[in-house]
Design goal:
The chain is built from 5 helices and 9 strands, in the order βββαββααβαββαβ. The protein has 207 residues and is of the alpha+beta class. It folds into 2 domains: 4-108, no CATH class; 111-193, 2-Layer Sandwich (Alpha-Beta Plaits), CATH 3.30.70. Its main location: other.
């Protein structure tokens, strides 16, 4: 067993194992606890895992399984690539960041992140009023939302939404209503994800 721990996120006091593959094929997904905080980890042989598409997908898949395996378990996600030398090092980080983690867990309690991108079909146009209408309708179905980068000329909206786990169906209906009303726009809808865009904890991997 490797001494290094790849860390996916932090949950409230809980212990479990998940029989899915993590980053670099690490399995099982297990936990390391410090007082009322529990980190989700798997063993890994390197301190610098490759940021491949497969590894990024596995990171996200683990967090999604953590959420859904307990019908909406609250998780504060770590960014990709957080590796700690040992359980002792990880527990030290949980101890020093305890207040920040507890606050973040309260801020996103029972919530997941959903993503919506609006793409203008080729040859079509969209005005600011349309974008504002869509943004207002979707924001009304969420607890909070944040604007992300518009990385393409045809991308007219890119937002992340914080939605209660139990309200995902209602939010999905709001997305479908937008699709129905604006047929010349392509609506890309993704999630549920761990709430990356709604927590702000800066921690460097202790190496």
């Amino acid at each position: 067993m490797s001494e290094h721990l790849y860390t996916y996120g932090v949950v409230d006091d809980d212990e479990f194992e998940l029989a899915i593959e993590g980053v670099d094929g690490g399995t099982p997904i297990r936990t390391v606890s410090y007082r009322s905080l529990t980190a989700i980890v798997s063993d890994i042989d390197t301190l610098e895992p490759e940021r491949s598409d497969e590894n990024v997908r596995r990171h996200d898949d683990v967090l999604r399984e953590v959420i859904e395996s307990a019908d909406g378990r609250t998780v504060v996600p770590m960014q990709f690539g957080m590796v700690f030398k040992s359980g002792r090092t990880l527990k030290s980080v949980l101890r020093s960041g305890r207040r920040a983690f507890r606050k973040a867990l309260l801020d996103v309690d029972g919530m997941v992140e959903l993503g919506v991108k609006i793409v203008v079909d080729e040859g079509a146009t969209v005005d600011d009023d349309t974008v504002a209408d869509i943004a207002e309708r979707l924001a009304a179905a969420a607890e909070r939302d944040v604007e992300n980068d518009l990385f393409s000329d045809r991308l007219c909206m890119n937002r992340s939404y914080l939605v209660a786990y139990d309200d995902q169906e209602a939010f999905s209906e709001a997305v479908q209503a937008v699709r129905d009303d604006y047929e010349d726009l392509t609506v890309q809808y993704s999630g549920p994800w761990a709430p990356y865009n709604f927590v702000d904890i800066q921690i460097g991997a202790a190496q």
